[in-house]
Amino acid sequence: MTDTGCSLCVELAGGPSQELIEASAGNTVGRVAWRDGDFVLLPSLGQLSRTHLLLLPTQHITSLAALPSEATRHVAQIMNAVRRLVQSDAKHLVAFEHGIGTRPDRQGGCGVSHAHLHLVAVDTRDPFMHPPAGGDFEWRSVNGIQAFENLDPNDDYLLYENPEGLAFVSCVRELPSQFMRKWMAEALALASWDWRRARDGVVVSERAAQLLDPLTALLDQPAVSV
Fold first, then answer.
1. Environment class of residue 105 by beta-carbon count within 10 Å: exposed (0-12), middle (13-18) or buried (19+)?
2. How high does pLDDT run on average in the chain?
């Protein structure tokens, strides 16, 4: 299932989204770094690091918690491959997702309704060992990405996985747009965090081309048990 009003669905169907056109100064570029029949990896607009990927399903769903169990295991395998790629460059992997629930009274978010998991390479572990504090967060430890199987797809949630692979989840009632991007940018001492203002579409497209071969090599290896 696709949503013709979804910018990510437009990209996955082979056409440039309006956001990608704007980020590329009118140039038509692509940014798919790897895909199979169920999932896609593409560099994020507004890169927080040189390797900042989005992992998203090819089908239009609003959260990874809505995936069946077999698909969440596949997500974990893809994450493991990206982690190996990041570690080969002496970096650490941080992951996060704002899962959008189906309740009609939900609020907040970045305006992108297609489920997407951020995978960000960072130089140091220390600022990212714990999820954001304060606010209305009630973080609980979960069993990695497969914790999706125990989440209610009706509820908004924030999932965070630290550089050691420890995962935390909190249900959220209202989350400011791009909250996690801003939090990570501050920890990374970056002045820019808003992907909607980024004009790095051409750079993102070039990065996708650079990642194609190493990602394909890693993801063509036999699956690792998770």
1. exposed
2. 87
Domain segments of the chain: what residues? 7-219
Distances (CA, A) of 186 to 127, 128, 156, 194: 10, 11, 24, 12
Beta-ladder partners of 174: 107
Partner residues linked to 93 by β-bridges:
121
Q: Which residue has the tokens 């927080």?
A: 48
Residues 101 and 153: their CA atoms lie apart, in Å, by 5
Each residue of 2-36: b (16+ CB within 10 Å) or e?
eeeebbbbbbbeeebbebbebbbeeeebbbbbbbe
Place of tokens 């070039």: 206
Q: What is the fold of 7-219?
A: HIT family, subunit A (3.30.428)
pLDDT digits (tens, 9 = 90+) for 107-137: 445 567 899 999 999 999 999 999 999 878 9
What span, in angstroms and rounded, lies between the C-alpha atoms of 182 and 186?
6
Residue 161, judged by CB atoms within 10 A of its CB (0-12, 13-18, 19+), counts as: buried
Contact 119, 47 (CB under 8 A): no
Asked if 41 and 78 count as a contact pair (C-beta separation under 8 A), the reply is yes
Inter-CA distances, 150 with 170, 171, 199, Å: 12, 12, 38
Instruction: Give the pLDDT confidence of 162-217 residue by residue, as tens digits.
Output: 999 999 999 998 888 899 999 999 999 999 999 999 988 889 999 999 999 999 99
Tokens at residue 98, please? 């704002």
